[in-house]
Specification:
This protein has about 270 residues and is an all-beta fold. The chain has 1 helix and 23 strands. About 40% of the residues are buried.
């Protein structure tokens, strides 16, 4: 495991949200940030920020309950947001206008993501299902069922042919994004899986869990390549860097850890 520097320089503090910030994401070139929030009263749950100046560029206000997940598309023309109001919204980044409201989930929407070309959205929900949406029409293309408890994390692989999901049923599933078929079910965590992500070439998945561990999985075989121990409380967020050589993890133990993938997968 790599240690982060003891002191990281604070470049900006962005203050405008009126409640807990639930999600922050950079756009592809790092010039903008989108944030989602638990909100009170005004429901200003989605904000777009200029990284250089710290200014709010857009305040997106159509959700009627907490915003749990946000993401940019690759060319930064659209934002998708998922909310506890059970809806998904697609926004125009330039104007702040709602372009689509996607309805279909019967409980909180907890995770949303675009595919790489921005034509599809995947969403996960406390209704235990995953939906794949056509961005242009707002229609559901697939409803993926198989998890037996809340789905809390979803992601596409880079070419958009596979979806990975993590659930409170302690499992991870890999799905065919076109047919909706379950291709793999990964079991090994002893508590709910909070976060999942593919590496860039789609050969590995990383997962973080309430069992305080991180696992690296081989997508082809479903085998655990490594179990990473070090956090002392729930692991809530995990991701690979672009070239797949590092994993970053965040935890309720108040720490962020960076792991060397080449080292841990050889052990």
């Amino acid at each position: 495991m790599e240690q982060l520097p003891k002191r990281l320089e604070l470049e900006q503090t962005h203050r405008s949200h009126s409640d807990f910030v639930t999600r922050v994401v950079f756009n592809h070139d790092g010039t903008k940030i989108v944030s989602g929030s638990y909100v009170s009263g005004s429901y200003d749950g989605v904000r777009v920020w200029d990284v250089a100046t710290g200014e709010t560029l857009q305040t997106l206000q159509d959700h009627s309950n907490w915003v749990s997940s946000v993401a940019f598309n690759h060319d930064v023309t659209r934002i998708v947001s998922g909310s506890y109001d059970r809806s998904i919204r697609v926004w125009d980044v330039a104007t702040g206008e709602t372009l689509q409201t996607l309805q279909g989930h019967s409980d909180w929407v907890t995770s949303v993501a675009f595919n790489h070309d921005g034509t599809r959205i995947v969403s996960g929900s406390w209704d235990k299902s995953i939906r794949v949406w056509n961005v242009a029409t707002g229609k559901t293309l697939q409803t993926l069922r198989g998890h037996t408890d809340n789905v809390v994390s979803v992601a596409f692989n880079h070419d958009g042919t596979r979806i990975v999901s993590g659930s409170y049923d302690n499992s991870i599933r890999v799905w065919d994004a076109v047919t909706g078929e379950t291709l793999q079910t990964f079991r090994g965590h002893s508590a709910c899986v909070n976060s999942v992500a593919f590496n860039h070439d789609g050969t590995r998945i990383v997962s973080g869990s309430d069992d305080n561990s991180i696992r690296v999985w081989d997508v082809a075989t479903g085998e655990t390549l490594q179990t990473l121990q070090g956090h002392s409380y729930f692991v809530t967020s995990v991701a690979f860097n672009h070239d797949g050589t590092k994993i970053v993890s965040g935890s309720y133990d108040n720490s962020i850890r960076v792991w060397d993938v080449a080292t841990v997968c050889k052990k």
